Amino acid sequence: MTRFADGEVMRFAQGAGRLAGIAGWLLGWRPDEFWRATPAELGAVLAAMRGEDAPVDGVDAGALARLMQAMPD
What we know:
- By secondary structure, the protein is mainly alpha-helical.
- The chain has four helices and no strands.
- The chain has one domain (6-70).
- The mean pLDDT is 86.
- Pfam families: Phage_TAC_6 (PF09550).
């Protein structure tokens, strides 16, 4: 099991709390929405808000069917 110094835990907690507040203020996210989002999802939303949308290739029907079969929930 990895041990973290108390300072590292506090820095994480303070940073996460700050990001949760920003997500609530800018995006209207409730805490549960923030905690369910991945860092990549939060980054993508914030980048889009800054107008940094990158073109994204869509998912074809076959890939979507495979994803739905692999993750039925």
